[in-house]
Amino acid sequence: MRTPVAAGNWKMNLTPDAAEALARAVHDAAPGLPGVEIVLCPPAVYLASVARVVSNGPVALGGQNLYWEAEGAFTGEISGHMLRWVGCRYCIVGHSERRHVLKETDDEVNRKVRAAQRHSLVPIFCVGETRQHRESGQMEEVITTQVRRGLDGFAPRASGDLVIAYEPVWAIGTGLTATPQQADTVHRLVRGLIRQLWGDALAAGIRILYGGSVKPDNIEGLVAQPDIDGVLVGGASLKAEAFLAIARGCRLRSCS
Ligand code: PEP
To answer: Residue 87 sits in which domain range?
Structure first.
């Protein structure tokens, strides 16, 4: 059984006080949500204060991005080393906003995935097609290329070493959600690619999350799908009540 994950990507939002209050609300509720792994990914400047709130509790901390070098003259960047020091266990890599707004390439995403592993961080490795890709029948090719290039040279020793997030670009922050069946089809494709890369055991154990306008009212249908192992949540993770309702929804999977 794959433990479901509810991960919140706060992106570039919240004031310092609001970030701390949100972390506290999630931290306080998390012991009442066994069977789901909760991850918070605040902006880098709030990692230390959120770490203080969630330390010694079940909520895990994640970065939103990292640079592949460990240290040096890389103004504005943050290394895996630093994310570990501040208490991160996870780091989002290759989010669609980084790929499409900040023009990150598959090669850069791959360097980051491997750097995360070197620093004992679990990458939450994101893939997803644009609306144009989907409408022109290129979805499968795009996802396959992102998975193969992004994970080239990455060698998980255990299924917990990697989390993948399927996030169709057309569904992120748009209010459009992939239907549970559309999402599950891509999750099965990704799991098949993982099987080809690393064999049955890792393919059976690696968690594949869905992301794209997840809300309390669509979580149930998503996690009812056999290959959807939780969610990466943007907008709805900024409100404790909505995010906790989503995390509760993920528990339906662990109970089924
Ligand atoms: C995301 O940022 O990863 C995301 C899925 O955003 P939203 O839930 O707002 O679509």
So the answer is: 5-255
How far apart CA 39 and CA 193 sit, in angstroms, is 25
Pocket of ligand 1 (CB under 6 A): 9, 11, 167, 172-173, 211-214, 232-236
Q: What is the CATH number of the domain that holds 185?
A: 3.20.20.70
Residue from 5, 9, 177 to probe ligand 1 pocket by mutation (most atoms less than 8 Å from CB):
9
DSSP helix/strand/coil, 62: strand
Does the reported pTM lie above 0.70? yes
Instruction: Please report which residue ranges of 138-228 form alpha helices under DSSP H.
Output: 139-150, 180-198, 200-205, 219-223
Q: Which residues pair with residue 211 across a beta bridge?
A: 232
Residues identified as active-site: 95, 167
Question: For 226-251, what is the mean pLDDT?
Answer: 97
If one counts the domains in the chain, the total is 1
Q: What is the pLDDT of residues 21-47, one digit of tens each?
A: 999 999 999 999 999 999 999 999 999
Q: Which atom of ligand 1 is nearest to the CA of 233?
A: 8
Residues in Cβ contact with 112 at an 8 Å cutoff, skipping those fewer than 6 apart: 65, 66, 67, 68, 91, 93, 94, 123
